[in-house]
Amino acid sequence: MRKKAAIACSSNERHWFAVYTTSRHEKQVARHLHQRQIEHFLPVYRTQHRWKDGSRVVLDLPLFPGYVLVRIRGNDRVGVLEVPGVVSMVGTLSHPAPLPDLEVEALRAGLDPTRAVPHPLLTTGQRVRIRTGALAGIEGIVVRRKGGYRVVLTLDLLMQSIAIEVDGDDVELLDASIPLALEVTDKEIKQPQRSPLYQLNCLDSYPELTVGIPSNAMARAR
């Protein structure tokens, strides 16, 4: 995502913050935030899992594992920290670090769970800007994939990236002197070694089995 100057965070203004959760408890934290009428956003992506018996199930899993985003005033952080499953807020104990509101609001308005996936952290490459749709204005790094394109967006505070499928006509180069076709592919990006995000044979780590997140599941307390 585009780099911005540090955001001056007034205790009387609401901003988006990242909440760090207990491992594999993002959805439980989101439910508690909903019950307490705290505005929040849990970005998810949709994937299929195949059980040992050969059956398949559709899962909605967190795009940013270990994090839920909340929109609060700075002096309301205590109420968030009291939510079961919340470990901390990104930033210092007395001054949580706000996320860029524009990027979070664009993701909340335009994210399609079927066209987004987690991506290894990517900070260098050819930068583009999405110019159409709900994500218009968002900047990221473009990679080629199976004849199409993905734009990799990074939340710098979380040090995590996600990839969103786009059509070539939906993006514009920030440096027009470099042809889009010269960009790297997913296969050329070194994939880090990591343990599975979810152990599906453990009862406590089962994600919710769902084919979608109802719109009213993301409370927007104004």
Structure characterization notes:
By secondary structure, this protein is mainly beta. The protein has one domain (14-205): Alpha-Beta Plaits (2-Layer Sandwich), CATH 3.30.70. 11% of the residues lie in helices and 32% in strands. The protein has three helices and 13 strands, in the order βαββββαββαββββββ. The strands form three sheets. The protein has a six-stranded antiparallel sheet with strand order 8-12-11-10-9-13, with no helix packed on it. Strands 1, 2, 5, 6 and 7 form a five-stranded antiparallel sheet that branches. The longest helix is centred in the first third of the chain and has 10 residues, at 26-35.
Summary keywords:
disordered N terminus, Alpha-Beta Plaits, 32% strand, mainly beta, 13 strands, 222 residues, five-stranded antiparallel β-sheet
Query: How many domains make up the coordinates?
Result: 1
Can you tell me the residue ranges where pLDDT is under 50 for at least 5 consecutive residues? 2-7, 181-222
State the end-to-end distance: 26 Å
Secondary structure tally: strands: 13
Principal-axes shape call:
globular
Q: Percent helix among the residues?
A: 10-25%
The CATH superfamily label reads NusG, N-terminal domain
Output the CATH class name: Alpha Beta
CATH architecture assignment: 2-Layer Sandwich
Series of secondary-structure elements, N-terminal to C-terminal? EHEEEEHEEHEEEEEE
What summary fits the major beta sheet?
Answer: 6 strands, antiparallel
Instruction: Briefly note the structural class of the backbone.
Output: mainly beta
Number of helices: 3
Query: From the alpha-carbon coordinates, what is the Rg to the nearest angstrom?
Result: 18 Å
CATH topology: Alpha-Beta Plaits
Mean pLDDT: 80
Q: Taking strands numbered 1, 2, ... along the chain, how are they ordered across the largest sheet? A: 8-12-11-10-9-13
Question: Which range does the strand content fall in?
Answer: 25-35%
